[in-house]
What we know:
This protein is an alpha+beta fold. It has a single domain (about 1-115), classed as CATH 2.40.50.90. About 30% of the residues lie in helices and about 35% in strands. It has three helices and seven strands; from the N terminus they run H-E-E-E-E-H-E-E-H-E. The strands form two sheets. It has a five-stranded mixed barrel. The chain has a two-stranded antiparallel sheet with strand order 4-7.
Amino acid sequence: MRIINLFLFGLILAFCFYPLDAIAAEVLQVRSSSLLQIGDNNRSYTVQLVCMEVDPTNESAAKRWIKQELPRGKRVNLKPKGSKEGVLLAKVTPIGSDKELGEALVEKGLGRSTC
């Protein structure tokens, strides 16, 4: 667990000094309405959407909508905001879209903003 946290800290630190605002990666799996498995350069890590919360009654509809928006292999931009217990916390924006995923869920009425 400590190694994962150190890896994520290094990853976040690298993202902070990276010359671009966001890093492109691809979706490997949608685990839930706020948890994604993302791959980048032969690495795989879990990403949780930040500033957004889904009510348990909307979980299945939100997960279905995210799977539709983010099929396996879809490229996304990540804007890391931190980490928690080995999970990268980030804003996720599909390539070709101007809308961050958490904001889109809130607009669809499937989630609520927490920031």
